[in-house]
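Researcher: I'm preparing a figure for a lab meeting and need a structural model of a single chain. I don't have an experimental structure, so a prediction will have to do for now. The sequence is pasted below. Please return the structure as C-alpha cells so I can convert it later.
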Amino acid sequence: MLITCPKCEAGFQVPERLLRDRDRPLRCGQCGTMFRAPEPPAPEPVAFQAPEPPPPAPVVEEPRPAPTLVAEDSRPEPLAARGASLERASAPASRGLRAAWAASIVLLLCGGLAAIIKRDAVMEAWAPAARLFAALGLG
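Model: Understood. Here is the structure written out cell by cell.
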C-alpha cells in the first residue's frame, strides 16, 4: 500500500501485513513525523453479469404416419388362448434353472470342503484365514 507523509509528502510502499494494526503510529523516514496509517481504500465491487441464456431451439413437428388398418385375421392371439403354449415354453427353462442352482450349490460345497482339507496350505498362503478356521473350531 502506498502511504504518504502528511508533512513532507514523502511516499512509502508498505506491505499490507505490516498495517494490520491501524492503531499503531507510523514515523516518516525523512522528516520523522509521527502519524496514523490511513484507512485502506474499499475495494470496488465487481458487477456480476449473468451470462445471457441461449435462445430456445425451434420446435419442429415431425409428420405423423397415417394409421394403418389391420385385418381381422391378422390380430394377435389373446393371452388366455396362449396359456398352454406359455406353460410348455417355461417348463424347460425352470428345469434348466434348477440344474444351474444345484450345480452352484455343489460347487460351493466342494470349494468349502477343499478349503477345509487343505487348510494348512490356505493359512500359509493367506494369514487371516487362520482366524476364520479358529472361529469355526478347525484351527
